[in-house]
Amino acid sequence: MTISMNALIERQILKAQAEGQLNNLSGAGKPLRRTHIIPGGGASVSQTIKAGLGVPKSPAPLKEQIEAARSRLAQEINPEAKRSLVTEITKLELAYNIEREAYLNFMK
According to the model, what pLDDT value does residue 78 have? Predict the structure, then answer.
């Protein structure tokens, strides 16, 4: 990790301690479960911590679904099917924006 990333992490930990967010954590003093095994372990620990804190998941899968729906829309000829796809894309974009906003707000 870079120095700036380490400083950011340290500031976030100190902020959480000052606000009392680290008091009475479930599993305090116990080893983290290895649910996200990634070589190097760094991402594994962060994923486990984020999952335990209820951090919203990254909206990346929705972005992929939006792109797939847009490519289907570009190939569609039937006007009724196009309307249906536009509705689907709109719903996916709304869900994406909600998840993205929740993720960004949590990371502040």
Answer: 93
